[in-house]
Model the fold of this input.
Amino acid sequence: MIKPPEKGRAGTTPLLWRSLWSALLLTALLAPMGCGRKELPVAPSRLKLQAVEDLSADREGCSVILRWTIPKGGDNDLLTGFTIYRSEQKLSGRLCPDCPLTFQRVDRVDLTKPAPSADAQGQAVYRATTECGSRYFYKVVGFTGGDVRSADSNVVRIEMESPEGQ
Done:
């Protein structure tokens, strides 16, 4: 003879009761994780900063010298500095033009301090010590005192081959 299902609390079956408790427990465990970083909302900026378009890189020994024109006029006059970003690959590796680059912040150029951050032609100048035997990609992003940022500059690539005889 077939027995009817056993009744649990409030007329529900034990399987349904366990499912409800499992769902409640799972929700309680996952709810504090949320979705992303919690911060106060930030109003969109009305400032429009021009991105650097003429970033260039020159090699001097195992150092890289970056130069770019500091944008002028309008909101660009509020620029207080630039953040330097770099991505590195070993020269022994294959160059993959379609692979995404992972940039890391390496330094900041403060325009509020006296030179050497700018030259006589109004160009920002930055010298980076690097390792010979690597390929580097650089970009710069302007910022203001209120931490408003420009778009990324053009990306430059420079290969730091080992000097002859080393």
In short: The helical segments are 14-30. Strands lie at 56-60, 63-69, 79-90, 104-110, 123-129, 134-144, 156-160. The longest helix spans residues 14-30. Residues 67 and 125 are 5 Å apart (CA to CA).
